[in-house]
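Reposting from the mailing list since nobody answered there.

I have sequence plus structure tokens for a pair of proteins and want to know whether others read the tokens the same way I do. The first protein:
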Amino acid sequence: MSNLGSSVSSAEVKPAALSSTSKHSEETSVERDYKVDWLRCAPFFAMHFVCLAVIWVGWSWTAVGVAAFLYFARMFAITGFYHRYFSHKTFKTSRVMQFFLALAGATCVQRGALWWAAHHRGHHLHSDEEDDVHSPHQHTFMWSHMLWITSPQNFETDLKAIPDLAKYPELRFLDDHDVFVPVLLAFAMLGLGYGLNFYFPSLGTSGWQMVIWGFFISSTVLFHATCTINSLSHLFGNRRFNTKDHSRNNVFLAFLTLGEGWHNNHHFYPASVRQGFYWWEFDITYYLLWTMARLGLIWDLQPVPKRIYEKAVEHQKAA
């Protein structure tokens, strides 16, 4: 890797028009949109079924605590890194730190940063329109929530949508080998469980119990919590701004996803590092990014401009 210490731009990303080879397919739109590649997605569905192994491995406060910690830590990796950095470039960092942000996100079992950012930029470009692959207003609820990820038309990473990121070979490597990091995490959980069982048997955990709770259950809950922003936050909540889509602010989802629930705010002005525009709008992702900035790990956090607050007041008076 060259220029490892160079700064990566935080300019507001304007997504390129997303290429779509499926538009040239002879399939009908319904057949194309709702096709599931069951064979390729078998590991995805297996991740859900393996959670049932909790019946055999049982539970312990240690295993549940590790699962909860990994849920919140990895949710921050999704919200702060995959979303607010890679998708929207709401702050700057060095190339070395950029790689570690992508590495942290790769533990979430939500594919690589390039794939994630390309799809999310497409969502903003076509939000709740026909080309929005996970809009609950264009598809069934289950498709918008999770099944869209199983369709062959959504497997590939559209590099044309992320030219600012695709130029980094280390990010391309993580994207091309997105299974590698989650497998390492699963083995790390196995080793942690065996280690705790050997040195601290009073904790009542084991290797496989830690794998089930720390990897499978935590990852599955993390996946569905993330997906609520695609589905539920376009159906339930309040609308501060009259955006062209159906995005809504939802306080419950904001707590569940560390601040992503302020979705209507975000769709009105996605270039801001904070999505809770006001102090009473809980946005722990912003607080953690602010802390990282104070430590010098990231910088140039993009604020909510004064004109956006003025627009909020105008919309409130017009309501």
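The second protein, same order (residues first, tokens after):
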Amino acid sequence: MNRNSTELPNGYMETIRKGIGGVRRFRGGMTPGTLSREESIARLKAELATTDAVVIGAGAGLSTAAGFIYTGERFEKWFPDFIRAYGIRDMYSGGFYPYPSKEIFWAYWARYIYINRYLDPPKPVYEDLLSLVRNREYFVITTNVDHCFQKAGFDKSRLFYTQGDYGLFQSTDPRNRKTYDNEEWVLQAMQAQGFQKNADGSFGMPEDGDIRMEIPSGLIPKCPDDGSDLTMNLRSDDSFVEDEGWKKASAAYSQFLKTYGGRRVLFLEIGVGMNTPVIIKYPFWQMTHDNPRAVYACLNYGEAYAPEQIARQSVCIDGDSAEAISLLLQTGGKRF
């Protein structure tokens, strides 16, 4: 008999509890390790080749390494009118700006969703990462919401997007606990703003640069079930909808950790900062500490370190994660 979703294990809360335990345990010093970069790459290659399972924990730094950058040229290309009108300095902060109308608010978010969810990242970092673990038992937990793992070909049943998905809406009615795909709406909203549709179905800036900074009122997204306003399915407070797919992914993560508990596990953390360390970083430290056969690996630009208590079980690689992953794929001058 299949268990009701309310009876499924909650991997999210389990990992939060592990993270809180890590906060309490690891109050001492941190270390970047004593190995050189070359030695660290060699050790991580060996661990990838011999481990029983890999648990990938991915943060925003991985998508940044893949080219999903929220400032500079990419931001200026897609939001020149918003920059001029409101002085917005980066894509992320623009999502919180108090725009004067819903039509302008949703014009901004249509572009935001389109380029960060429905376009592929410029660099094949996610595909390279998949090549590293394709033939191993793996699971991914991520705070990223850009769908890059699935677009790269990772098995959906081995993914847990803890914080939501740019490709989903949810109702503002708290009684409605469903989510809704938004691709069709995004494409309509892009076209309504005057973006040019190319032969392959993608959108680009028109040659004359004439785009509109709002959408028609009739395109403001409404819930098809209850008629309420829709909002993004992104975790910001307790209104975040954990739908059936989210609950199944949470349970699958819990089950994977139980299956490989006590075995040789590689906790591979990539691009995780200190915004939400209790979801990935601290739990990875705690689970490595609790399992003498586990190894913790941290790939990060400027923040590659581990607690002294698990230093012997850790590999820290500072620098561009895209470059590190590429090096891990190389063996004898050839790629796997």
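Reply #1 (J.P.):
I read it the same way you do. The chain has a mean pLDDT of 94.
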